[in-house]
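Chain A, query sequence.
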Amino acid sequence: MSYRAKSIFTDGTSTAFPFSLDTAPSVFGGEVHLASASGETVMRVESDDGFGEMRFTEVLPGITVSFNDFHMGRCISSFSTESDVLCIDWCREGRIEQPVPGGSYAYVSSGDLKVDDRASHTGEFVFPTRRYRGVTISFDLSFAPDSIRKALPGFAVDLFEVKRRFCKEGRPFFLHANNQASHIAAELYLAPVKVRKAYCQIKSLELLLFLDSLEPDLLVEGTEYYPRSKVARVKEAHDLMVSNLSESITVEQAAKGAGMSLTAFKQCFRGVYGSSPAAYVRTVRMELAAKMLRETDANVSEIGAQVGYESPSKFSVAFKGFSGVTPSEYRRRQ
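Chain A, predicted structure.
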């Protein structure tokens, strides 16, 4: 094993970021901005598709916590490492598509936890709902075990054993909607800035203790995998359904266009986007209507027609069910 003087998750100056400004654009693509202050590095990625931000803090040598916030449909990563690493990802909001060996996808959504070794972290990352917010705890196993022993003598979790149990054959481990994991991870967002580093140390170790208590082989049945060919057809149908909201395309028509049975289409659509086709399109309609109410002078009936409601009264009822107020009241409050 070659000797490294510093963890891959730091630049060597206690700044938690594994890339220089010169290399970051080639790793993430798009326009990348970096800023560092008080041991925290903020990376912002911008492209024609939207933007994303990651805030990195090195909590101990070899252990980094990043807070991730993406408002985009996809981004490209060419990050790869031969280092021995273990990463825990927890999703607070949104969804991310995870390629898995064998030509399928799995999906991480709100409340889900993922454990992997970053063996397959190169390529396109897709956020089906154009939203992903969550936290990543990264352990460089060349440094983290010694750092933990020094910080907390007697800490009994073996990081190498955790990796062996949870990261098998390059396949990530998924734990869906687990209340205990969510309770631990969500509290990372609550720490005041002045004690965030210490708080993240505690929570990182608490998550390790939680994982060490699990039997991963007994928890694998909760993950559903979707063949890439079916996902591609569902995505094409999705694009057709939301491309012109003034024209209603029924779920039956979308399923037929995708060459799938209605049941299979609904199941795969929910797996990719997190809700039924009808509920998803309804949300898209209401979000677009809210945007138009905020940003244009178009009257309510015109906006309703543009999002697929010929009847102003039906649009008003639907919008109130979505936002809690009528379209006119919503506009007055802006």
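The first helix runs from residue 24 to 28. The longest strand covers residues 85-100.
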